[in-house]
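One-letter codes give the sequence; the fold follows as tokens. An example follows:
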Amino acid sequence: MSLPKSTSGSVHEEDELCEYRNVFPDQASKLPYSKSKAAAIARNRGLLANRLFFDNLCEDHVDKVESITDTYPPKSTSSLRHLFEKIVHSNIDRLKQHSFVYYLMRDYGEEYARKYAQRALLPEHFCLLMDGIWLLDNFEFERALLCITHPSVTFPYPDKILTTLTTHAPTRPDLALAFIESTNPPILSDASTTLYFKSLLSVSPAQAFLYTRSCPPSARADLLKMLVEHCLTIRKSANSMMLLNLPMTKEEEAVCEEYIKRSPLPHARDALLVKYAYVGRLEEVLEAAGGGAVEGEEKAAGLNWGDLRSGVELGVGIRRGLTEL
């Protein structure tokens, strides 16, 4: 994916916005890349797999910049001038060049960037795209979402965005869900599908279950196992009952039951026994509750699985007797 298309030609030498002195504040003291700002950019770059979103865009579009990670953030006004000149002499059209400069102006402040956009006649959707890039790079995810989900913007790198939101805003799964549901990006990688599924699980396990049916058949079993694991560990009582009542096909049910049988989680067998009892599979209740271990289990409301198994054995015996008449 790329920056929006524009109909502008290449930059002309007479364009005043091609001159550094006409764009950036001339006082060296106004360089916004203090030690703390440079350290924050370096930290965020490291957290984003050593590639800011701006890095990706530069490497994909700005042919004159050899190594953006060495060039941004600029260490001095001369370094900033060098980066600016590389941008305005790159083999991309004028509006795209202005877009990259607009990103740099965001480091000076939103007001500087907006004034520059007005001078450059930069369309709003170009500004929204670069605002989203800048906000993501600065980990302002909630504000970034307003830009990257705007109908006029086709945002690049959906997998990287999803990874960023789920990894660095783990307490806000709604951000990742809003991004996917608002933009409907092309088919995601297997890793991103898993991340999206985990976000769904945090909000609605039932919705996550339905989502598995839209995934490739090869991925469904693993996603169903993740669903079971979630329901048996997070809000166990409510989610386990929800799991037991999902409208599963025989194939889905078989995958989940087999995983529950092999699960070491103490709540797993309880969920399976409740499922069998609920649908009248009493022989399987006896099998799952077999062994002497259940006899000594702690009782709840005066009962444990050993007591319930005895009652089931009695019921099964009566049923067998009736069928033999």
